[in-house]
Design brief:
By secondary structure, the chain is α/β, with parallel strands linked by helices. It is 41% helix and 17% strand. It has 13 helices and 15 strands. The strands form three sheets. It has a seven-stranded parallel sheet, with helices on both faces. The protein has a six-stranded parallel sheet with strand order 12-11-10-13-14-15, with helices on both faces. Strands 2-4 form a two-stranded parallel ribbon. Strand 11 (233-238), helix 8 and strand 12 form a beta-alpha-beta unit. Helix 1 crosses helix 13 (363-379) and helix 7 (217-227) crosses helix 11 (329-339). It is globular. The two termini are 12 Å apart.
C-alpha cells in the first residue's frame, strides 16, 4: 500500500500535523505502509525521521498565503498513478482543491484530514472577516472536496463531534484515526545551543510550540505575573511565529518587569527540544483550541508533567488526575502559585501520565492502527 500525504508546509517551524505525519509514516513502514509526502514552500526539517527521497517540495507563487503552486498539476499527472490513496491534510488552501480534482480525474481515492480546522473556534471565532471568508470558500470549493472524499479523519472523538455540527457534514464517513507520538526518548544532558543551558538550581516551566494568539502565551505571561512566583522558578517560552505577536510578548515581559523570570528562546528542535522537555518540571499549554496536542504527548514521553487548558482535546485522553484548567487567567495564576510549585505532585503527575499514555498511545501500536485504517479505507 502506497499513500501520499499532502501537507501545506515542510517547514517544522510552523507546527501543525507535519511532525506527527512524518513520525507515523516512518514507523508505519514496519507494517507495510509506504508513505510519501508532498509539501509546499521551503524544506526545513531538522530532525526528520522519514527518508528525504519520500518527500517532495514544490514552490509556491502569488498569492503565497493561499499556497498557490503553478507546478502542482504537472506533478500530479506524473506521479498520482503510483499511489493507492491520498490524504489531504488541513483546509482552505489551493493544494487541496488542486489535488482533489487531480485525484478525481485519475481515479485515485482521497481522504480529508482537517486537523481542527472544522472546529467552531477555527471557523467562527477568529473575527467576522475570517468567518465570512471561510463560509464563502466552503460553499464555493471546500464542500465539494469533502463530499467527494472517501472519508474524513479526525484525531479525537471531540473533534469529530464538533465538526459534525460546525458545517453539517453529511454523506461522508467520519473516522477517528489512531494518532499520537508517544515513545521513550533517550536522555539528553545538555543542549546543542549553549544559551539554552539552564543552571542546576533553576526550576523550569516550559511552553514549547508555535507563537500564535491561539496558543494564549500572553495569558500565560499575565498568569505568571499574577502568581507572584519567584526564584528558583523561570518560564521558558520556546518557539517562533508571527513577528507581531512575538513582539507583543516581548513588550509584555518588559513592561511587567518579568525579564529576569521569563525567557524567549526562539525555535528549537532535535537535541535542544529534547533537552528543554527533560529539563523542565512542567509543560504549560493554555490554548484556546487544539484538536489534539502533539506537544503534550511529547512532553509526557520526556518525563515532564503537564498542565493544559480544557480546550486542548487530548485532555480527554490524559489520566483522570491531570491538571486540566479553564481558559481563565486567574485559574492559571492559582495553578502556578500553588499546584505547580508542589514538587511531590509534579513527580506523581508525570509518572501517572507516562504510564497511562504508554499503554494507550505507544507509537508502535498507534502506527499499526494508522496503517490498518489507511489500508482499509483505500482498499475498500
Amino acid at each position: 500500500m502506497r499513500v501520499l500525504h499532502v501537507l501545506h508546509s515542510a517547514d517544522q517551524r510552523y507546527g501543525g500535523p507535519l511532525r506527527s505525519v512524518l513520525d507515523l509514516s516512518a514507523c508505519a513502514s514496519n507494517f507495510g505502509l509506504c508513505s510519501e509526502v508532498l509539501a509546499f514552500g521551503k524544506l526545513d526539517l531538522p530532525d526528520n525521521p522519514l527518508s528525504t527521497s519520500n518527500i517532495y517540495v514544490l514552490p509556491v507563487s502569488f498569492p503565497k498565503t493561499y499556497c498557490y503552486c503553478l507546478s502542482i498539476n504537472e506533478w500530479s499527472r506524473a506521479n498520482l498513478s503510483r499511489f493507492d490513496g491520498v490524504v489531504l491534510h488541513g483546509m482552505w488552501l489551493y493544494p487541496n482543491w488542486a489535488l482533489a480534482r487531480a485525484c478525481t480525474r485519475a481515479g485515485v481515492p482521497y481522504a480529508c484530514f482537517p486537523h481542527g480546522m472544522l472546529d467552531p473556534w477555527a471557523v467562527y471565532r477568529q473575527g467576522v472577516p475570517k468567518a465570512v471568508k471561510k463560509l464563502l470558500y466552503w460553499q464555493l470549493r471546500e464542500k465539494r472536496i469533502f463530499e467527494r472524499a472517501r472519508c474524513v479523519f479526525f484525531t479525537t472523538e471531540r473533534e469529530r463531534q464538533l465538526a459534525k455540527r460546525t458545517l453539517h457534514l453529511s454523506g461522508t464517513q467520519l473516522l477517528v484515526i489512531p494518532y499520537g507520538v508517544y515513545s521513550s526518548p533517550a536522555p539528553v544532558t545538555k543542549p546543542a545551543r549553549p544559551d539554552l543551558l539552564q543552571p542546576p538550581d533553576r526550576k523550569i516551566a516550559l511552553f514549547l510550540g508555535r507563537l500564535h494568539p491561539k496558543k494564549n502565551v500572553h495569558l500565560l505571561i499575565e498568569a505568571w505575573r499574577r502568581s507572584g512566583t519567584v526564584h528558583p522558578w523561570h518560564l521558558v517560552i520556546a518557539g517562533s511565529g508571527e513577528p507581531s505577536y512575538t513582539a507583543r510578548l516581548r513588550r509584555m515581559i518588559e513592561e511587567k518587569g518579568l525579564g529576569e523570570h521569563i525567557h524567549l528562546t526562539g525555535f528549537v528542535s532535535g537535541q535542544d527540544k529534547a533537552y528543554l522537555f527533560q529539563r523542565a518540571s512542567w509543560f504549560l499549554l493554555p490554548s484556546q483550541q487544539e484538536n489534539f496536542g502533539n506537544a503534550v504527548v511529547e512532553a509526557i514521553s520526556h518525563g515532564c508533567a503537564v498542565a493544559i487548558s480544557d480546550q486542548v482535546f487530548i485532555a480527554d485522553s490524559l489520566h483522570k488526575s491531570s491538571d486540566i484548567l479553564p481558559v481563565d487567567v486567574q485559574a492559571w495564576a492559582l495553578f502556578i502559585r500553588n499546584r505547580m510549585t508542589d514538587f511531590g505532585w509534579q513527580t506523581q503527575s508525570s509518572a501517572l501520565n507516562r504510564e497511562h499514555l504508554g499503554r494507550i498511545m505507544n507509537i508502535k501500536d498507534v502506527a499499526r492502527g494508522w496503517t490498518n485504517v489507511l489500508t482499509n479505507v483505500f482498499q475498500s
